[in-house]
């Protein structure tokens, strides 16, 4: 592996590690604030990345620059308002990633004039990954955050049951299709144009 490739892999890993950790912590923190102690009791109310990493997701992260963390355990029956609690807890992760992207954009505005290639490259990666992770998790496919919102707004229990029975297979199938036919990556076709648009705004040093 060349030095440039190693640096690129390292920057991608560090950016995604921060993105995933804050994402999962945000789920746990909001659930805790709404009265659910499950995440705290499971040791997930922390910014320690090792508490959130999934073994297989970490391996995928190292090998393919795409990975995932362990879902935060939530018990919605602790919420005073169950539907509201599910919505707020579910969107907490994506919102945290949008906020991180915004913070990254402000730092880029500050550091860009110094032309520090290492730092500026990291910030570009950091901004892009946070936006991508936020939008990706809003897709209504289990186990993504968007699937929890479906249970609140869709009343047909048969649709919900089907989604949770087969949604994971749909999710894996879309990922496999994307890995074998890169040009026909369905998930990328869905979210990449939106990610690119938001990224172009967040990453323009003079915009924020």
Please give a structural write-up.
- This protein is mostly helical.
- The protein has one domain (3-202).
- Helix content is 70%, strand content 0%.
- The protein is built from 8 helices and no strands.
- α1 (3-33) packs across α5 and α4 packs antiparallel against α5 (117-137).
- It is globular, with a radius of gyration of 18 Å.
- The model has no long low-confidence stretch (mean pLDDT 83).
Give the oligomer, counting copies of the same chain as homo and different chains as hetero: single chain
Low-pLDDT segments, ≥5 res = none
How much is the radius of gyration in Å? 18 Å
Number of helices: 8
- Which structural category fits the helices and strands? mainly alpha
Please give the alpha-carbon distance between the first and last residues.
36 Å
Q: Estimate percent helicity.
A: over 70%
| SSE series | HHHHHHHH
Coarse shape: globular
Q: Strand percentage, roughly?
A: under 5%
How many DSSP E strands?
0
Q: Largest sheet, if any?
A: none
List its salient traits:
single chain, 208 residues, mainly alpha
């Amino acid at each position: 592996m060349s030095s440039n490739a190693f640096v690129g892999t390292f920057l991608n890993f560090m950016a995604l590690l921060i993105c995933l950790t804050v994402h999962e912590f945000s789920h746990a923190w909001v659930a805790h604030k709404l009265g659910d102690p499950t995440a705290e009791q499971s040791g997930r109310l922390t910014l320690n990345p090792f508490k959130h990493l999934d073994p297989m997701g970490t391996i995928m992260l190292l090998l393919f620059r795409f990975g995932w963390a362990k879902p935060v355990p939530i018990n919605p029956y602790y919420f005073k308002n169950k539907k509201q609690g599910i919505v707020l807890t579910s969107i907490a992760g994506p919102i945290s990633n949008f906020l991180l992207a915004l913070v990254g954009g402000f730092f880029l505005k500050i550091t860009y004039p110094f032309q520090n290639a290492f730092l500026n490259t990291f910030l570009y990666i950091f901004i892009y990954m946070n936006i991508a992770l936020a939008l990706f998790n809003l897709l209504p496919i289990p186990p993504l955050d968007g699937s929890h919102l479906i249970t609140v707004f869709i009343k047909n229990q048969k649709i919900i049951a089907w989604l949770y029975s087969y949604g994971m297979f749909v999710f894996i199938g879309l990922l496999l299709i994307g890995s074998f036919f890169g040009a026909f990556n369905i998930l990328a076709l869905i979210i990449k144009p939106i990610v690119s648009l938001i990224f172009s705004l967040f990453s323009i040093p003079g915009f924020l």
